[in-house]
Amino acid sequence: MTLSFFTILTIISLFMTTILALFFFINKRGFIRENKILAILLMIFNLQIFYSFATSSFAWQYFMDWHKPLFLVRQTSFLIGPLFYLYVISFLKKKDVYDYRLFVHFLPFTVAVISLLFYYRMLNRFIIWESIADLNDTILILAHNLIYIILSLLSMKSTTINPVGFYKSILISAHNRWLQILLVGFIIIWMVNLNSFAIIMIVRRPGWCAYTASIYALTAFIFINTIMFFLLLKPDVYYIIAKYKNTKLAEPDKSEYLRKLNSYMETHKPFLNPEITLESLANDISVNPRILSQLINETFKKNFKSFILEYRIRESMRILADSKHRNLTILEILYQVGFNSKSAFNNQFKLFTKLTPIEYRSKAIG
Question: pTM here?
Fold first, then answer.
């Protein structure tokens, strides 16, 4: 096999994606559960890169006898959208990814594989680009991934009508910038697939799939390199790293900072402000933002966002359990404690209490 430019590019893409997947899989820092979801997602991208190469003009003649298993590999595209969506909602702590009801998202993949296995039993010869199954499968995959792009966007957005509020809610923290990077990459890959498919359908030359498939390897190469670039340039874009190990806080100073933080949180309740940031809170208590971040991570074993979320949930529990506030609606309460999304509030409340806000109020005040 001649080592053409795209052959070398594919090999490099497969190698880099594998390394990145292993990094997330064995990484014990940051969000471990989400790390594993991302590792699985990257390995599926690896399978798609290999599939694209095996059906490309540079290698198709070497895989002609393997089209049935290759087409089964292609069905893993039905896993990309659900896994990305689960990664987003888990990263944002909106749902527990171990909820058995979420497995419904993987039904299309299961149905696709089972259907193909039955379909193969009726065929002696199967060539991917000569089969009507390729056309139908491509349309379904594109539509399926578009649905999950929309679901992921909706999960990341604010419920405020003001369009500025949408972008502000996404850009408010480094972690959400990381989700933006992944989502943009997912959309670009989807658009590349859509345009490749459109070209094939317009020129009506199935053999063109061999050429357009090579573009997938190039797109994946750029996408993986972008992820690596951000991780190397700004690792805290993704996870809270152990950057404090060489800057230990003196115990007296730590106690004083902690006293100021707890006193301010209880007295002034800054968490009620939906626009609160680490920097604004640090400024309010006259502490360096980096020291405040270190204090929260070392003392409470959580990041700033989780720290604020817990205060908001506890405040909402207090209001819901007070009979004097029985006339307040759930919507009024969630806005009052600093949330701006009903779904986010309900999900966080249930994760914290194992009850919905209505169930909690009913048990607390009858």
Answer: 0.59
